[in-house]
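Researcher: Here's a chain I'd like modeled. Treat it as a single chain, no partners, no ligands.
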Amino acid sequence: MESQEKITLPLVKDDEDHAYLKVGELARRTGKTVRAIHLHEEMGLLKPAARSAGGFRLYREEAIKRVEWISKLQEMGFTLHEIQSFLRSYEESRSAPEAMTRVRDIFEAKLQETQAYIVRMGQLVGDLRASLGYLESCHHCGVHHLPECAGCERFGHDGTAPILVAGLRRN
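Model: Modeled as a single isolated chain. Structure tokens:
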């Protein structure tokens, strides 16, 4: 069986020997789709450095960092519209200290939101563990038992179930 070689698309160079990436190569190197790159451009989050004679978008190597930055912000929970607003706020700053204050404020708010989310997820982990512990003894129920796990008093249960099981009570 033949092994497939990894094909790397060459960089496009202009007359001044500036290297550019075509949109497909930028997408491949960032793990994004061409459509995602186009969307970033449409929203003003990314700008091609040039266009080829045939009208193809050409990006500098720095565009990789911009796409990775956008991806990181999305991982943090920012929507593309929020990133667009974030950039607009940054770019409208009249000075570096003002720009950094705006960025710091946005990151501080995101940190607080993320920490609150972690607390909620920690509570959910506790709820899931309690429910799984409660349900662990349920495999002892026989086929003659009705599914009334929420108020079960068998197998060491006291008739009160964790919230994730208690919601199963029949109305």
